Each structure stands twice: as structure tokens, then as C-alpha cells.
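User: Sequence recovery, please. Input:
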């Protein structure tokens, strides 16, 4: 196989990958919207426009590569898209997230992983080589393989420099967004209005379980102290705290007045409780902004002991040490 046929084969296969990816996303848009939402980088009003446009863009660009339409700009566009998603997946993995990529729609329901990053790097290398080859002037292509390789090296070196710059820009944008979220939480924390405190009263509220049933929690109807836990699937401390909660529950046992409440949407909450089941105790969620505001659920995790009048006896904010676990057990 000569070099022309080799690059033709690579180009067609490369384009087909994006056509297939776009087609499978279109066949299961609902799942793709959920995947986009779980990356937690776009406001809700942008979810549908992104989810609808992304597969169409992939199909159009993939076909353009296959049929060699405006090839240089198409390959460069795909290169930038690949860089963006590879950096994004890497950032999420470093944050400890294990969310569904949705890269190939219903064909792939796997969680993001380092293997997925390696796959993308393989696509990036193929992309860079294709951009390099199709950027070589025609007279050099007609020359021998040595001339082609020499020119290819020059073009690829330039592309790698550009790629490195783009990676840093994307990382900066992702980290800036995460930093903004962190600053918002720190401002709330420093305002001294971050959590419900001892001797404050917590009023009755409504939460949902994963059978879509609503539960009305009224502490005045309880015959003993209640345990309330606020957590978030995005909270690193909440994931690390899961073992402490399990240890605590192994002593307290299964009770009707224990409420683990994820302050997330149903999908994120379900994923958390699937990963960290709490000894058969029922799990709930409530992601409304009003609930967070009223019950000061901006900071997680919170582990609260509430008496029969709705009075908070103790609120343990953050990770639970062995001493704190013992103190909680003593309330029951």
C-alpha cells in the first residue's frame, strides 16, 4: 500500500468515527442530555442546544473528512474539539468523578476512565498526522517518502505547539469555572450563615425517594431523635465520609427517622447512593434552590441530630472522626 492509499484509509476511518458517534447520540438524545448535564459545566438553558447541535456538528464534520470537503479547516476543527473533550474528561477524572461520557450515545454507557483518555489521545495523534499530511504542498507529496516525512515533521511540530497552547487554555477555563464555584461556597462559609447551628429549629420539609414518592418529614411526630444528613454527589468530602457514615449506621441500625438527603438532581443522587449504599436506610434527594436556602444546605457534608421538637442538638460539618461518630451514636 503506497502512502496515498494509507492516508486515504486513515482519513476515511477517522471521519467514520465521528459520523457514528453523532448518529448514536441522535438516536438517544435523552441520555446524551443527561451526560452533558453531569459534566456540570453549562447552565440548564444551554443543555438542549448543546445536546442537539453536537451530534449534527460531528456528523457534518465526519462526512466532510470522508468526502474531503474543506479538509484542512475541518480536520483542525475536529482537532480542537478532541482537545477540549480530552482535557475536560481528564479534569473530571482528577476531581474523582465517574460519570457517563455519552461519547457514542447508546452504544457506550461506560463511565469516563483513563482508558478513554488514551483512546482520545490515539484519535488526536491520528488527527495531527492527517492535518500534517494534507497541509503538505502538492509538489512535495509527489516527491519521495523522505521529502514527505521531512515536511510532515515540520507541520506536526507546529501543530503540537498549537495543541499544547490550546490544552493550557482549556485547562485554564475549566479550572477558572471550578474556582468560581469554590469562591461562591467560601463566601457563603465566611458569611457565618453557612449551616444550621445548635439550638436552631428546623421546620418540616418534603423530600423525594427514587420511587418518585414524596416524604413529609415532621419532627414533632417522631418518638425519638432524628438523623439528618445533607450531602452532594459532587462533594469530595461526601465521598470520603461514606465509610464514616457506614460505621455510624452499623451501630445505630436501620431506622425510619434517618434521612440521607442528596442536594442534587435525581440522576446524580441515584449514582451516589448506588455507589455508597447505607445499610438499607432509605435515600432521598431535593435539588431545589429554595430547599438549600431555607435549610442552609450550601456546605456539605452536614450530619445533624434533631430532637422531637425540631431543635438541632448538634450539627457535624465536614468529615466525621471516630470521636464524632461515637458522639452521634450516644444520641441514639
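Assistant: Recovered sequence (332 residues):
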Amino acid at each position: 500500500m503506497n502512502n496515498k492509499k494509507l492516508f486515504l484509509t486513515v482519513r476515511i476511518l477517522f471521519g467514520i468515527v465521528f459520523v457514528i458517534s453523532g448518529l448514536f447520540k441522535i438516536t438517544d438524545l435523552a441520555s446524551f442530555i443527561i451526560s452533558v448535564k453531569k459534566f456540570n459545566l453549562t447552565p440548564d438553558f444551554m443543555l438542549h442546544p448543546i445536546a442537539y447541535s453536537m451530534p449534527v456538528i460531528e456528523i457534518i464534520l465526519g462526512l466532510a473528512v470522508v468526502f474531503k470537503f474543506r479538509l484542512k479547516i475541518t480536520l483542525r476543527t475536529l482537532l480542537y474539539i478532541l482537545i477540549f473533550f480530552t482535557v475536560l474528561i481528564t479534569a473530571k477524572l482528577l476531581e474523582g468523578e465517574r460519570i457517563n461520557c455519552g461519547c457514542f450515545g447508546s452504544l457506550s454507557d461506560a463511565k469516563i476512565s483513563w482508558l478513554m483518555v488514551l483512546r482520545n489521545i490515539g484519535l488526536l495523534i491520528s488527527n495531527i498526522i492527517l492535518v500534517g499530511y494534507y497541509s503538505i504542498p502538492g509538489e512535495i507529496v509527489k516527491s519521495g517518502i523522505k521529502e514527505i516525512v521531512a515536511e510532515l515533521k515540520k507541520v506536526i511540530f507546529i501543530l503540537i505547539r498549537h495543541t499544547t497552547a490550546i490544552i493550557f487554555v482549556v485547562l485554564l477555563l475549566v479550572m477558572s469555572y471550578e474556582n468560581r464555584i469554590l469562591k461562591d461556597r467560601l463566601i457563603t462559609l465566611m458569611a457565618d450563615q453557612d449551616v444550621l447551628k445548635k439550638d436552631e429549629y428546623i421546620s418540616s420539609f418534603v423530600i423525594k425517594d427514587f420511587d418518585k414518592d414524596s416524604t413529609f418529614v415532621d419532627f414533632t411526630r417522631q418518638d425519638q431523635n432524628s438523623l439528618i444528613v445533607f450531602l452532594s454527589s459532587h462533594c469530595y468530602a461526601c465521598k470520603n465520609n461514606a465509610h464514616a457514615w457506614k460505621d455510624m449506621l452499623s451501630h445505630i441500625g436501620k431506622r425510619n427517622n434517618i434521612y440521607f438527603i442528596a442536594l442534587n438532581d435525581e440522576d446524580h443522587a441515584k449514582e451516589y447512593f448506588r455507589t455508597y449504599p447505607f445499610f438499607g436506610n432509605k435515600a432521598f434527594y431535593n435539588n431545589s434552590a429554595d430547599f438549600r436556602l431555607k435549610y442552609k444546605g450550601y456546605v456539605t457534608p452536614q450530619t445533624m441530630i434533631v430532637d422531637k421538637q425540631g431543635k438541632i442538638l448538634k450539627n457535624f460539618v465536614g468529615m466525621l472522626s471516630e470521636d464524632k461518630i461515637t458522639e452521634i451514636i450516644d444520641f441514639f
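Residues 3-189 form one domain.
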